[in-house]
Structure formats: C-alpha cells, structure tokens
Design goal:
This protein has a single domain (4-220), classed as 2-Layer Sandwich (Chloramphenicol Acetyltransferase). Helix content is 32%, strand content 29%. It contains 5 helices and 10 strands; from the N terminus they run βαβααββββαββββα.
C-alpha cells in the first residue's frame, strides 16, 4: 500500500514544465549511459551476494530518495496536478530459460538493503515455478525495472502510452557487463514522462547510481 501527497501548482517550481509536458507536448524522455560498477561487482563476488538484487536495491533506493521519480498525476477541478507517492516498489522480471518467457513480480522496498534483498530473493524463487506473465499488481505505487544481461547496449527503446493523469513513474533498464582497461561498466537506462523530470534529473540518477554502487561496495568489504 502507499499514499500520495498532491503538490500545490502555485508553489511547485516545475509547475510550468509539468503543465506543458502534461497538456501541450506529452512525451517521454530517456537517457542511457555506462556506469562504472567495478568495485560493486568485485564486492558481490567476494561476499557471495547477488549483483542483480544488490543493484535492484540501488536503483530502488534512488527512486525512493527523489520526489521526481515517485510522482503520479491526479485530476482535480478539471486539471492534472502532480503528486508524490510516499514509497514506490519495483516491478521486475524473472526469466524462464526453458520457455524463453518471463514472469513479472513486485518486491516491497525497504531502505535496509539486507531486508530488501532477502524479500526479492524469496519473490524471485516463487516466480521460478510460475508460468503466468505476471502476478497480480499490488497497486499504482510501483515502477518497472528490466535487466537485459545478454547484451551490452548503448541505448534502449521504451515507449509507453503517454496519457493525462497517469502514473509518472520511471522505467529503468540495465544490460550486460562490458570490461575494458581493467574496469567493468554497466549500461543503465532511465525513461520517464517529461512532465515528471528533465534531462538533469536523469543524469543525476545515473551519477548517483554510480556513486552509490561504489559506496555499497566499500561497506560490503568492511
């Protein structure tokens, strides 16, 4: 469950931008780039942790630390107003190699990394035995995450219907590792409704993912 708080358009610093991209020029904005995950990958290897679940925690932590990534739009008085969820939970996929299909699941976010990763591991194990495309959604306060480990990419194309008064949550995708000059890089893509965020916010997301990855690696190896 989750609750949202409506933002006052009279005081919201991005009110003009929000209304423009919500009503006049509805569109998505996307940014993809490599981030350095050398230390995090090494730390996961040494400690036996799942890189996937650790990185899922990292992107979920950043989403839940920034208002622009927890936004939705609500209609009031004939106008779409921005609102911010108190928490967002990741919807992610479990791939079935035998059928080359997947099952979408959600994992409840927790700011404690071990608690979250333990929950995600249990959710993924249950989904291993499912043949359905997705389990019932928990609600609107979710965001989508995908991992494409089979290929390192330089961009990724994602397009969702852009509608008025809808979820403004991001879609996050990362791909396979690329090793060069002794460093390990991970392609990371963030796509979001332009009413919620601008290029600055997406660039900051990627920067914070890289910084947090290094910081968590250091904590794991203490």
């Amino acid at each position: 469950m989750g609750e949202y708080t409506k933002i006052d358009l009279k005081t919201y610093v991005r009110a003009e931008h929000f209304l423009h991209f919500m009503n006049e020029a509805p569109c998505e904005i996307s940014l993809a780039d490599d981030i350095d995950v050398t230390a995090l990958r090494d730390a996961c290897r040494v400690t036996g942790r799942s890189f996937y679940r650790t990185f899922l925690y990292i992107v979920s932590f950043i989403v839940n630390s920034r208002d622009e990534f927890r936004m939705t739009a609500v209609r009031s008085g004939g106008t779409c107003h921005p609102a911010v969820w108190d928490i967002l939970h990741p919807v992610h996929n479990v791939f079935h190699e035998d059928t080359e299909t997947y099952t979408s699941i959600f994992s409840l976010f927790d700011r404690d990394m071990d608690t979250f990763c333990s929950r995600a591991a249990e959710d993924m194990e249950r989904a291993e035995h499912l043949s359905v495309m997705s389990i019932p959604a928990m609600g609107n306060n979710t965001f989508e995450v995908s991992c494409l480990p089979w290929r390192h990419f330089t961009s990724v194309g994602i397009s969702h219907p852009v509608e008025n008064c809808t979820s403004l949550a991001p879609v996050i995708v990362w791909g396979g590792f690329r090793e060069t000059a002794g460093r390990t890089y991970l392609p990371l893509s963030v796509t979001i409704h332009h009413a919620a965020a601008d290029g600055f916010h997406l660039a900051r997301f990627l920067n914070e993912a890289e910084t947090l990855s290094a910081g968590i690696a250091g904590r794991l190896l203490k």
